[in-house]
Amino acid sequence: MGIHFDAAERVFCLDTPRSSYRIGLTDAEGFVTHLYYGSRVPDSNLRQTLWYGFERPTVYGETGDQVRFTGSIPSEYPTAGVGDFGTPCLAVETADGGRACALRYAGHRIYGGKPKLNGLPATFGSESDCTTLEIDCVDAVLQLEVTLCYTAFENLDAITRSARITNRADAPARLTSALSACLDMPNRDFDLMTLYGFWSNERMPCRRPIAWGRQGVASERGISSHEENPFLAVMEHSATQTQGQVYAMSFVYSGNFLAEAALTQKEQLRLVMGIHPNGFCWTLEKDEAFQTPEAVLVFSDTGLAGMTHTFHDLYREHLIRGAYRDKARPSLVNNWEATYFDFDTEKLLSIARTAAKSGIEMFVLDDGWFGERNDDTNSLGDWFVNEKKLPGGLKYLSDEIHKLGMQFGIWMEPEMVSPDSELYRAHPDYALQNPGRVPTLSRHQLVLDLSRQDVRDCIYAQIHAVLSSARIDYVKWDMNRPLANVWSAQLPADRQGELYHRYMLGVYELQERMLTDFPHLLLENCCSGGGRFDPGMLYYSPQIWTSDNTEAVDRLRIQEGTALVYPLSSMGAHVAACPSHTNRRVTPFATRGLVSLCGCFGYELDLTKLTESELNEIPGQLENYHTYGDIFRTGDYYRIASFAENGEYDVMMAVSKDQKTAAIVYVQVLSREKHPSPVIYPQGLDKTVRYRDSLTGTVLSGAGWMYGGMALPQMQGDYLGKLIILQATEA
Ligand code: GLA
After folding, report:
1. Ligand 1: distance of its center to the CA of 529 in Å?
2. Collapsing DSSP states into helix, strand and coil, what is residue 132?
3. How much is the average pLDDT of 681-695?
4. pLDDT in tens, 377-396
5. Ligand 1 binding pocket mutation candidate from 478, 525, 541, 551 (most atoms within 8 A of CB)
6. pLDDT of 82 higher than 90
7. If you average pLDDT over residues 340-349, what whole number do you get?
8. With CB atoms 3.0 to 4.6 Å apart as the test, which of 158, 415, 464, 591 could cross-link to 721 if both were Cys?
9. HEC readout, 352-376
10. Is any atom of ligand 1 closer than 6 Å to the C-beta of 336?
């Protein structure tokens, strides 16, 4: 496995347990061409599908014998201006206005492990986890060096890619596009799958046949967004949850992105992923380098479940960091939907006392504790406690909550400033806005120019003071609007195109600083719900608030789409009040508990207003979370039935890695009277092990359950659920 160079064939061979990736060098020119990606193969020289048959491809020769366009061959990193008419990964504008760029192989290195990406989130791995290949390419005319970086994981069918572009010329080079990865391949009967959505309905899976031309998803909002997620997969039309080939790409980045699939008239498919070129331009002075973020490629020949398992394992083990990477997350109660801005110390403590009695482990104080904030019109940027509301400050509250035996967390929105704030009155230039133009407000707020070191330092000093002022165990880092009026007072005119990316680097730097100074902190990212649920954020926070839509039935779809790529352990999932604040639906407390069990469990309601019987359910829900939470957090996830698809019921399943315990969460959204029970087919069990079903006591082999099926329990009524445990037994 790993990576080696077949020098005779001039082919780089990257192999993972079940996938192979081949990169060839053309003879004369040394173009870096894509030969193959897919199921594991022993061969190096897989040139047989190229236009030029078995001869090594010869294209675009400046020497003259054969002058062809670079687009004639599949490329690892297509460049603009020399005859590749697809979406380029790299477009460069030179000082003389030239736009042509052609890269040729110059050398390579293969080594164990994986380098960090300076200032950027990225997957990591030790020498025994993975092998890295760096291919150096050069455009001699431009004196531009491009290093293509690939890492193949030893135990996972994942290959990561990024590029580092260095200008060696005396004159500056302007990058107008610098994507992270390209995958050229012959088309098959492929479908395209992406995750679309909007606020309160994030990450709905969308699968459709690939059509001619360019299609895909993108964000130009400065955040990865509610609307599209930085993920794309193509799969055989016949592929299912468990069968068929799937090629997926996921972007370890939280800002503007492009994820595109383009089908050409010649039946060639090109997938590209990277920072969106719109609004992007980066100037490199001599010897300066630009590092692209990382794209993750996953291949599965066991359908969508295979893809999902690889992403979950990779992100859990090689992306999420920190004290909570392998630890159970505390159950929490958050006061947002309980009180909104209307609270005082006593109200909060009364919720906390009820929580403590019920066994909830952490209290989270949401928006409204700082500045003069009693609604959302002011005070962002003024991160000092409102003592009128909270006498004794966070310290008093935190101490009281810790005395109850609970941990304490707070909400912050460090990337924002309200025009009605002390910070804005003192430093209006700290906000992103165009001179002379009325700024675009959203939720009454502006975005801070985090590309600026002075702005970051000012905000960080406040964060540091807050986190040092009391015992704070958790921070919910929110971000409640997309970027507009993206102009910085500190960047020259010809560098404004760097601002979106510099902003993201600024956010990453702030979160890194905070985690370095407060390593015990549990960070949960949030963006008006799930507007920045992406792998970039997971590098900093092991969990992300999934959606502001906390209603259990809607959550089924949101959590299903999210779990396609992201581990269950990363999804904040809370039991909320009824009627739901989002859609007024009324669902049983038990069902809300069941749906939340599939993520980082918590409550988002006024516990003091619950009925006696609801309160009595909490200890049981917490016990389930403590007993089975591990299986959801660390096990293999299977989508057994989807309410989004069948309109009736939802079944998800998680199997512990040792295959001894499986938890099945069944929600009957709509009941059908006298209808025979649906039969489901559990997955992921050990065929030879015998499992007892917690509901009926039936004992069957794993094979018996998986092939024979399980009739779902009969329940009368809508919105009802059951947790079914299959436990390995000697019986
Ligand atoms: C966003 C978050 C919510 C809550 C509010 C507070 O909408 O997604 O969970 O924190 O902000 O203003």
Report:
1. 7
2. strand
3. 98
4. 999 999 999 999 999 999 99
5. 478
6. no
7. 98
8. 591
9. HHHHHHHCCCEEEECCCCECCCCCC
10. yes
Distance of alpha carbon 178 from alpha carbon 44, whole angstroms: 29
Q: Is 548 in the pocket of ligand 1 (CB under 6 A)?
A: yes
366 CB within 6 A, ligand 1: yes
Are 446 and 482 a contacting pair, CB within 8 Å? no
Distance 328 CA to ligand 1 centre (A): 24
Structure confidence by residue, pLDDT tens digits, 449-502: 999 999 999 999 999 999 999 999 999 999 999 999 999 999 999 999 999 999
pLDDT at 675 over 90: no
Residue pLDDT, tens place only, 124-133: 999 999 999 9
Catalytic residue among 84, 157, 420, 478: 478
Structure tokens at 195: 């995750």
User: Vertex 148, ends 175 and 234: CA angle to 5°?
Assistant: 95
Whether 548 is catalytic: yes
Q: Is 116 helix (H, G, I), strand (E, B) or coil?
A: coil
Task: Summarize pLDDT for 94-138 with one digit per residue, the tens.
Answer: 888 999 999 999 999 999 999 999 999 999 999 999 999 999 999
Q: Please report which residue ranges of 267-344 form alpha helices under DSSP H.
A: 303-318, 336-339
Tell me the residue ranges of DSSP E strands in 368-510: 407-412, 416-417, 446-447, 474-477
Does the beta carbon of 527 sit less than 6 angstroms from any atom of ligand 1? no
pLDDT in tens, 2-58: 999 999 999 999 999 999 999 999 877 788 999 999 999 999 988 777 654 333 444
Residue 339 CA to its chain's centroid (Å): 30
Q: How far apart are CA 525 and CA 390, in angstroms?
A: 25
Q: What is the mean pLDDT of the chain?
A: 95
> Given ligand 1 and candidates 366, 475, 543, which is best to mutate, with the most ligand atoms within 8 Å of its CB?
366
Token duo for residue 694: 């917690």
- Nearest alpha carbon, ligand 1 atom 1: 528
Ligand 1 mutation target, pool 332, 334, 336, 369, most atoms within 8 A of CB: 336
Rounded-to-integer distance, Cα 411 and Cα 357, Å: 23
The span from the CA of 654 to the CA of 630, in Å, is 10
User: Counting every residue, how long is the chain?
Assistant: 731
Tokens at 160, concatenated: 């990561």
Q: Are 573 and 599 in contact (CB under 8 A)?
A: yes
How many whole angstroms from 528 Cα to the centroid of ligand 1?
6
Whether residue 79 contacts residue 86, with contact meaning beta carbons closer than 8 Å, is answered with no
**AA letter at 544:** I
Return the bridge partners of 723, or none. 665
Q: Is the pLDDT of residue 516 over 50?
A: yes
> How far apart, in whole angstroms, are the C-alpha atoms of residue 4 and residue 7?
9
Query: Is the shortest distance between the CB of 451 and ligand 1 below 6 Å?
Result: no
Q: Please give the structure tokens belonging to residue 488.
A: 């910085």
| Active-site residue, selected from the candidate residues 157, 313, 420, 548 | 548
Beta strand segments in 84-172, E: 90-93, 104-112, 130-139, 144-153, 158-167
pLDDT tens track for 306-318: 999 999 999 999 9
Q: Give the model confidence (pLDDT) of 223-239 as tens digits.
A: 999 999 999 999 999 99
* Residue 96 annotated as catalytic: no
Q: Which atom of ligand 1 is nearest to the CA of 376?
A: 12
